[in-house]
Write a structure and sequence with these properties.
407 residues, mainly alpha, A middle domain of Talin 1, 3 domains, 66% helix, 0% strand
């Protein structure tokens, strides 16, 4: 079967002509196989494939998502990282709680966009993934997260701390989590802004490291965008057309959808289940395994990640030309489409509710575990099961082996 897709989604006369041509070809293919007496009894599967050829091919979904969703998010990340770099330079020049608070806010703003964009991580085997890793090694495991003792040793040492030198550092010594440590921890475990500021102000090397870390985050954000951009790495083009590292459109769809399934699993089991002691491994809790432990930003990290999943499912807000996952699912199963939207919306609402009352996931592990289990962990599990079975089934994607099987 030949899959139809478009690199330009604007409704121009030429695009309309192409769509009419595809519709005609589709009817030529499909209608001869339908007996006259069955014309009023076309099955839902036949209806779906007719619509798929005419309007909503998986190629269109990939083209739309890569070029109008992913590139937009990654461009926003570059901009936010530049703001972070500017704020870090200002803080190095003039310390104080006001400038440190601004730097924290810029870190948080860039971090939110990065977490929304991680839905485009897909797999660690692709070149753009290297830049995701440099920005945050959490997804790779404990050995790729910063260690406070190691960071303090770097500050206490004599190595050069400039953007150029820090750009050569290994994953645990760079990225969002490493910068987070210096913005939210005084070196003694407190995140009180006045104390953290005092510690930083008393260390020229800490300030140099902070400035260099923010600069390198900006560089890696630029590299991540360049890896996707059509004029440079063109991963967006490869994903759209199933070329390059992909063995065709179907392989690209399989990889992308399975990447999303894996992301929901990571949110469910790795970011919530393991720290909360809710997995098959047993009830022992590991709060240190939460994301953003220094800023206690785990709930916001989780919310932003779910927002990224929603962005791919719904497409850009207000975009009437969206060719998102929801657009494809609606054509075959409106009930499933509504259930997926409701699941995502409910998870977001539950997390936002805790953020609104200034509760942290760390505190809820100790004093509100039932909520974490029923309203976060199990709801994420339900969403993962839907994605891994019903959504994959509708798209005709192949489910790849996952370490989430059986939980």
């Amino acid at each position: 079967m030949r899959t139809s897709f478009f690199s330009n989604l604007r409704f121009s006369p030429s695009v309309a002509a192409k769509k009419i041509k595809i519709l005609v070809l589709t009817l030529v293919i499909v209608i001869p196989g339908i007996r006259c007496e069955d014309l009023g009894k076309i099955t839902s599967a036949e209806t779906f494939w007719i619509a798929l050829f005419a309007n909503a091919s998986t190629g269109e979904f990939l083209t739309y998502t890569a070029n109008r969703v992913a590139l937009s998010q990654l461009s926003q990340l570059v901009s936010a990282a530049n703001d972070l770099k500017t704020s870090a330079s200002a803080y190095k020049t003039a310390q104080g709680t006001a400038n440190l608070n601004d730097l924290r806010n810029k870190w948080s703003a860039a971090r939110k966009i990065f977490k929304r964009a991680e839905v485009f991580y897909i797999s660690r085997s692709y070149i753009p993934s290297n830049y995701f890793h440099r920005l945050d090694g959490y997804i790779l495991g404990e050995n790729f997260r910063p260690d406070a003792g190691d960071l303090e040793a770097i500050v206490a040492g004599a190595s050069i701390l400039t953007p150029t030198s820090v750009d050569t550092f290994t994953i645990p010594r760079r990225g969002f989590e490493t910068l987070e440590y210096f913005l939210y921890d005084s070196g003694t475990g407190t995140d009180a802004i006045a104390i953290v500021d005092g510690e930083n102000a008393g260390s020229i090397r800490s300030l140099a490291y902070i400035e260099a870390l923010a600069d390198v985050i900006h560089r890696d954000s630029q590299r991540l965008y360049a890896a996707w951009a059509p004029a440079t790495g063109n991963f967006s083009g490869n994903l759209s057309s199933g070329s390059g590292v992909f063995g065709g459109i179907k392989d690209a769809v399989d990889s992308f959808i399975n990447g999303m399934v894996q992301l929901v699993y990571i949110n469910q089991d790795v970011r919530v289940g393991v720290p909360a002691g809710l997995t098959l491994a047993g009830p022992t809790q590991f709060p240190a395994k939460l994301e953003s432990v220094y800023s206690k930003n785990s709930y916001q990290d989780l919310l932003s990640s779910v927002e990224g999943i929603e962005l791919v499912y719904l497409g850009n807000p207000g975009d009437t030309e969206s060719r998102s996952l929801s657009y494809l699912v609606q054509l075959q199963n409106t009930s499933l489409d509504l259930r997926i939207k409701d699941k995502i919306s409910t998870i977001k609402s539950r997390i936002q509710g805790r953020i609104d009352v200034s509760s942290t996931l760390e505190n809820d592990l100790a004093g509100n575990l039932t909520f974490v289990n029923t309203e976060i962990y199990l709801r994420l599990r339900e969403l993962r099961v839907i994605y891994a079975t019903e959504l994959i089934g509708i798209l005709g994607a192949n489910a790849l082996p996952s370490n989430s099987d059986g939980d």
